[in-house]
């Protein structure tokens, strides 16, 4: 049977696993997956890793590989999107208005959680908070996590009064409450691009197409992603 | 003062037996591997017997039945190890002071200077044990234990690696320690003359058992230990009393029964009962008193027994006490000696040695 | 990228923090490490296997797991963290003190193992000799066992310091990545590796780490030579 | 979550892989570890400080850095990786063999340190004795130095195995996270922690890790008792 | 066969001097810390001198100028260490076989059974060194080196921890090794009688220097070594020739010049020149020959000198060779002895001991 290898950003783990299993069952193509930080995956592909499909958590690592001619440009597409939400530990919710007039920095004490600005969620957070005029006041109070899951854990454990995570993460946690969803114009769109890696096996093409199928879309939305039409 | 009765098994070996030390110094004597070191370890508290008890000056150090096992550091029993066991990370000075510095001045029985001087180790103070010779190590180990001022001193071949000169220096010191500080000792050595210099009291071990114990003479006369005296060349031991000192002619006169003996000058107080010893080979026999001869001691006696032993004859002569004389077959022929004859036993003054106060 | 050999303020802060955390971690781990190492080498007690296992856990699990467990235990809502805060006003999460705790937990098994090894090689007869000289267990331990195990203690401390310099997973999970507070060199390096094309700054930090480690190793060599001389080698 | 005590195929695969990687890592690290540990303990040579530093690097850097360096060096395009592939057809990246290499690199400093410590505590006079009995350097080394350093070698092997069981950062960076090939227990745990709400399966894996580690420790205790008996303790 | 001249500094201590061993066995004698062990280590190749050379049977083992330093395992020089240095991880058996098993059968000079038997260690074979007594360890160390069949044997106080009985067992064996296997030895001991049993050849060290070397008599008569003989109680050493054996009366007769002496029976072949020794305290003086006495040897001589030494008098009597007699002051008074007087020296046969063939 054919076999393909999919490198996917860690935050897509659950969805991609399900889709891969489904694809394997339907098409008889064995799908191997490797989940890690997009940065690690990109570097591995750059070094000639035997990946057929790359699914990134943001645009910049896809651009990075694109710039190095490591992906098949024509195959690149955005699979899905996500939203940014402001969360608080369960039971510690407070009213928030995502408007410049609202004083978010004054509305809670201590630190807030997101990720370092070098990972996408960190960057989106910065953009959104800047847009709302809170960044300068909140930047020193940032407790960054290496990934969204860790950021979520800090809020779940009440270490941070608020946090900014993806809607997909907030959705599955029963220990946090969503205070508000950031308007999509307050930050660059959260997009998950996918592409064939240079030299990918022919069978990979089918999988990339399957990712755009309605079956896949159902799975994405089940996990809280916004499906891109 | 030390009383014990115990059984200690280690591997195939079992140490066993009662032992009572009521003498200032007791020599512990026995062939290699008979259990001497193990016994010392048990007394010091480093090895725990399976059964029995150990009592020191009435204090129970160990009692299997009552579950008492006083730890070593509460026993104040000093042990000079056969293989020195100096602390490799400490200088000689700190090795010496290890037990000493924790003592209150009142408890200290020696000063560092005294010990350095006696053992001639002042020049080694800053050295590490690794940079010492075998004998130097042994001396430091002895000094370390002495400075810890124990109430019982266990010495495991402390002078084995030392030259004659050093031994002659350290032994008198140990005797002073015995007499002046009244520090009791259990002294393991294969050199019987070292032991006898310190004490006539002996415990003899073999294969884990204490075969006998008591005054040297009594112990070695016991049938099962007889070989010992012979192998040591110390067959004659007498108890005598000091009657006269003549320093000008270098002579000390002692007596037993109604006999007088002339010995080399000693410092023993008059009237002191003391043990003296003589090899059987140092006894000559004559038919008549001999005049014009430097042999001072000529004691008449009766031949009890003439036995051929290998190539020589051992004569037992009764001079108030039985004395063994080892003489050649030729001499017996020439003199036509026979049992029952009266003979004079000739002993050179300097052939006797003092074993110490009785 | 080498435009300046001068350290940027961020680099300086990460370096200083790493050094601080490393030294505190080493100090924190020393006592328990020595005690546990000796205990495992010399004392037979029930539950020894469990203590042994517990100590090794941080080594056998991926670092984020001990980090997460620390968060559960020492976080604001954690049983111990709660108590620490109420009783002493101590907060560990997001503070450099927390980073110290995280790397200490990760370094402990290394320290314990080294001490245990060295203690097991100490000649018990020397301890016997000390006891007959009147030294009680504590004095024997302090003056004989520990000094003779010094090479192992030193090795343990070096390993602990080194482990702390490289510790990332447990730290970031437990105390996050807060600039100036918990962003040690590994966390700063991680931050740069997440940015495409930021290899230069990352490499600078890596080199700073390496230099720091070399300096520490060099110091430890001096120490180990001293120890060897002390032990009369 | 405890619905079944039976391991799922994924769990079994991760467990088997961890075991395989751990054992190979331990085996791989043994030779160089012993050699380097002895070298650093006993031989004076120029560049000793550099060798010492190099060996410690994986310890002092966050694990992703050595992982990335391995990728650069041993990747298909890396100088060594290229050669390995052309000459021997060996691919390390994304293979379990690569995972072995990654954890061996991370475990080496621990092994070296333990051996070095034990060798430095071996009495050189015993080696002298062997030499006067006609044994050349190699025989002295094999029959005296090594056996007397056995506790250190054992400690080093335990640390290496344990480190390999917990190794995450270098492995995921160098050989990725491919189920059945490189997804060892730590990587599997990581994968679950990336799935919101999958704490249960993650915990199961953590417990499997712990049990594996305990079993290994227990075995090593048996070994260490044997070694102590061998050394006549 | 062994020739060396070297200087070796270690810390404040310097070992220095030339030494030539051309005798089957040479005794090495000197006070604690004088450098005996260091010298043996240098010969074995374990310590490297700063200058000088060491040659064995014409082969250069070490030459500072030529930069030659043969490693120990190529020297085939066996060294029995003062502190045994058994391998703790090997059983007694494997310790014993360590050097042995690598030898080709032709190179082996002993069998394991021989050594086990001689040293009485068969029952220890499976033990670890840690479970041996001090003397047992020493015996195993000796056995291990013997089994390695070296071409030169360096013995560093090999019998120090052993009882008299074991010494009496091992010394004759070492003598057989000397005679039958012609294995040369350098024998360090503080017990001069052990040394003299094996050889009359002695090297005397002090403070890192080799003071003298040669036949015992010559060495100890050297002014700067004089104290040695006294401290050993071996002031009189004679070279004699065996003239007659009379086993039935247990007597061997020897002669020097025109004098005969009666000694205990020995096994030396007739005509053998041999060394015998006698303590000064074992000599008695008489004005006239004494009859009817068991003292066999009565040799006339002239008093050369009468010296008071502490509490006693040392008389030097010329009986063909000068003989020292230690007597009491009282005896000198009683007999009115004066220099120039003719006296008879009385020696008991059994007071003499054989030092070995000259
Ligand atoms: N490594 C060393 N460094 C400095 N000095 C040393 C070293 N080893 C020995 N010494 C010194 O060298 C001298 C000679 O030592 P050596 O062991 O050769 O004496 P020895 O004659 O064998 O004495 P002993 O009869 O006591 O064994 C001693 O004074 C000793 O203190
Ligand atoms: N740990 C041990 N396990 C088993 N047997 C031992 C142990 N230690 C000593 N032995 C044995 O116990 C016996 C007594 O040993 P010990 O050391 O007391 O003898 P020793 O009388 O001091 O001999 P030496 O004069 O040779 O020093 C010996 O036969 C020895 O082999
Ligand atoms: O193995 Mo880690 O999680 O990069 O410190
Ligand atoms: Mg003993
Ligand atoms: Mg010596």
TrEMBL record, chains B, E:
A GO cellular component entry from the record: membrane
InterPro entries tied to this protein: AAA+_ATPase, ABC_transporter-like_ATP-bd, ABC_transporter-like_CS, Mo/tungstate-bd_C_term_dom, ModC_ABC_ATP-bd, Molybdenum_import_ModC, Mop_domain, P-loop_NTPase
Entry annotated with the keyword Glycosyltransferase: no
Molecular function per GO: ABC-type transporter activity; ATP binding; ATP hydrolysis activity; molybdate ion transmembrane transporter activity
Keyword Translocase: yes
Annotated Mop domain residues: 292-356
ABC transporter domain sequence ranges: 1-232
Name the record gives this protein: Molybdate ABC transporter, ATPase subunit
Gene coding for it: modC
UniProtKB/TrEMBL annotation, chains C, D:
Xref: PROSITE patterns: ABC_TM1
TM annotation in the entry: 21-41, 53-74, 94-119, 140-162, 202-219
Cellular compartments annotated: Cell inner membrane; Cell membrane
Keyword DNA-binding: no
Gene3D superfamilies linked: MetI-like (1.10.3720.10)
Protein name, entry field: Molybdenum transport system permease
InterPro entries: MetI-like, MetI-like_sf, ModB_ABC
Domain ABC transmembrane type-1 positions: 15-216
Role this protein plays: Part of the binding-protein-dependent transport system for molybdenum; probably responsible for the translocation of the substrate across the membrane.
Organism expressing this protein natively: Candidatus Contendobacter odensis Run_B_J11
Annotated membrane topology: Multi-pass membrane protein
The organism's place on the tree of life at top rank: Bacteria
Main subcellular location of this protein, as a coarse class: membrane
GO MF annotation: an example: molybdate ion transmembrane transporter activity
């Amino acid at each position: 049977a054919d076999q393909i290898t999919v490198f996917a950003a860690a935050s897509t783990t659950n969805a991609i696993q399900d889709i891969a299993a489904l694809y394997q069952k339907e098409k008889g193509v064995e799908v191997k997956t490797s989940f890690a930080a997009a940065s690690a995956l990109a570097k591995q592909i750059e070094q000639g890793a035997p990946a057929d499909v790359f699914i990134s958590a943001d645009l910049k690592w896809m651009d990075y590989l694109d710039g190095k001619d490591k992906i098949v440009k024509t195959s690149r597409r955005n699979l899905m999107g996500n939203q940014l939400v402001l969360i608080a530990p369960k039971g510690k919710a407070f009213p928030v208005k995502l408007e410049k007039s609202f004083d978010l920095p004054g509305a809670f004490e201590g630190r807030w959680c997101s990720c370092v600005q070098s990972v996408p969620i960190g960057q989106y957070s910065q953009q959104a908070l800047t847009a709302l005029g809170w960044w300068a006041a909140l930047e020193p109070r940032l407790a960054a996590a290496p990934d969204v899951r860790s950021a979520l854990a800090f809020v779940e454990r009440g270490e941070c009064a608020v946090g900014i995570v993806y809607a997909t993460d907030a959705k599955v946690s029963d220990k946090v409450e969503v205070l508000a969803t950031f308007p999509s114009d307050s930050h660059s769109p959260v997009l998950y691009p996918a592409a064939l890696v240079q030299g990918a096996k022919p069978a990979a093409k089918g999988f990339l197409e399957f990712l755009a199928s309605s079956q896949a879309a159902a799975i994405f939305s089940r996990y809280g992603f916004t499906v891109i039409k | 003062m030390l009383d014990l009765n115990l059984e200690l098994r280690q591997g195939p070996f079992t140490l066993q037996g009662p032992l009572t030390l009521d003498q200032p110094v007791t020599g512990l004597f026995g062939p290699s591997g008979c259990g001497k070191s193990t016994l010392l370890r048990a007394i010091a508290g480093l090895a725990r017997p399976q059964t029995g008890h150990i009592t020191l000056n009435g204090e129970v150090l160990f009692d299997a039945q009552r579950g008492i096992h006083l730890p070593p550091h509460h026993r104040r029993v000093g042990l000079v190890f056969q293989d020195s066991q100096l602390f490799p990370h400490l200088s000689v000075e700190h090795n010496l002071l290890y037990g000493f510095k924790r003592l209150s001045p009142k408890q200290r029985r020696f000063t560092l200077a005294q010990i350095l001087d006696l053992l001639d180790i002042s020049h080694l103070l800053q050295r590490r044990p690794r940079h010492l010779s075998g004998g130097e190590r042994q001396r430091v180990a002895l000094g370390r234990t002495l400075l810890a001022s124990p109430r019982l001193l266990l010495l495991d071949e402390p002078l084995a690696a030392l030259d004659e000169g050093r031994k002659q220096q350290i032994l008198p010191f140990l005797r002073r320690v015995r007499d002046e500080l009244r520090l009791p000792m259990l002294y393991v050595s294969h050199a019987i003359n070292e032991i006898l210099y310190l004490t006539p009291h002996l415990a003899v071990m073999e294969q884990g058992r204490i075969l006998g114990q008591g005054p040297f003479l009594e112990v070695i006369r016991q049938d099962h230990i007889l070989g010992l005296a012979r192998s040591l060349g110390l067959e004659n031991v007498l108890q005598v009393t000091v009657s006269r000192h003549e320093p000008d002619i270098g002579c000390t006169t002692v007596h037993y029964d109604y006999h007088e003996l002339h010995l080399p000058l000693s410092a023993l107080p008059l009237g002191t009962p003391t043990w003296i010893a003589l090899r059987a080979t140092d006894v000559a026999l004559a038919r008549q008193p001999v005049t014009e001869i430097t042999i001072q001691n000529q004691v008449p006696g009766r031949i009890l027994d003439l036995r051929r032993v290998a190539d020589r004859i051992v004569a037992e002569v009764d001079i108030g006490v039985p004395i063994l004389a080892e003489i050649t077959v030729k001499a017996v022929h020439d003199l036509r000696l026979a049992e029952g004859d009266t003979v004079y036993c000739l002993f050179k003054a300097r052939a006797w040695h003092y074993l110490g106060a009785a | 990228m080498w435009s300046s050999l001068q350290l940027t303020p961020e680099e300086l802060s990460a370096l200083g923090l790493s050094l601080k955390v490393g030294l505190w971690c080493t100090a924190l781990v020393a006592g328990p490490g020595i005690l546990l190492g000796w205990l495992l080498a010399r004392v037979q007690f029930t539950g020894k296997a469990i203590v042994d296992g517990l100590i090794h856990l941080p080594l056998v699990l991926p670092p984020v797991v001990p980090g997460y467990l620390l968060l559960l235990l020492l976080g604001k809502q954690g049983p111990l963290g709660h108590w620490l805060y109420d009783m002493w006003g101590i907060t560990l999460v997001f503070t450099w003190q927390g980073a110290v705790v995280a790397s200490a937990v990760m370094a402990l098994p290394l320290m314990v193992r080294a001490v245990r090894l060295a203690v097991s090689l100490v000649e018990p007869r020397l301890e016997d000799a000390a006891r007959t000289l009147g030294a009680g267990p504590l004095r024997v331990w302090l003056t004989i066992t520990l000094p003779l195990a010094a090479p192992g203690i030193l090795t343990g401390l070096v390993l602990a310091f080194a482990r702390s310099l490289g510790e990332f997973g447990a730290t970031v999970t437990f105390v996050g990545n807060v600039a100036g507070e918990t962003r040690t060199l590994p966390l700063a390096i991680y931050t740069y590796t997440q940015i495409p094309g930021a290899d230069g700054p990352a490499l600078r930090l890596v080199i700073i780490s390496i230099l720091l480690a070399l300096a520490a190793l060099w110091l430890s060599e001096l120490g180990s030579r001293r120890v060897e001389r002390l032990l009369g080698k």
